[in-house]
Amino acid sequence: MKDMEKEKWTDDVLDSLTGIRQAEPNPFLLTRIEGRLQAKTGMSKLQVRLAAVGLGILLLSNLWLALSYDSSKLQQANSLTTSYQI
After folding, report:
1. Highest mean pLDDT, choosing among 7-11, 36-40, 42-46, 77-81
2. Backbone angles phi, psi at 69, to 5 degrees
3. DSSP state, 71?
């Protein structure tokens, strides 16, 4: 009896596939996607400005640190490591 139920279930599944056809995409979908990708190839003016500001801040902070460097602190650290033999 179970074999007949399995066979009926298999037949029902196969019968449900009779009206199936391959899915068809929208014909203009690919061209719209490609158009959007080509339109966004460059950076916006805001992004360029933000990158320039960030780079300027980074360069100025490095310059400030280099100018405010105190060599006496380095000498103190070296003498401490020498005295403690680190």
Report:
1. 7-11
2. -65, 130
3. H
Q: Which of 35, 36, 54 is nearest to 46 (CA)?
A: 54
Dump the DSSP string for 17-69. TTT-------TTHHHHHHHHHHHTSSPPHHHHHHHHHHHHHHHHHHHHHHHT-
**Structural domain spans, the chain:** 27-86
Q: Which residue has the tokens 């992004």?
A: 47
Q: Is the pTM of this model over 0.85?
A: no
Q: In the structure encoding, which two tokens stand for residue 67, read together?
A: 């100018």
- Residue 4: which H helix or E strand, with range? helix 2-16
- Exposure pattern of 44-72 as b/e (b: 16+ CB <10 Å)? eeeeeeeeeeeeeeeeeeeeeeeeeeeee
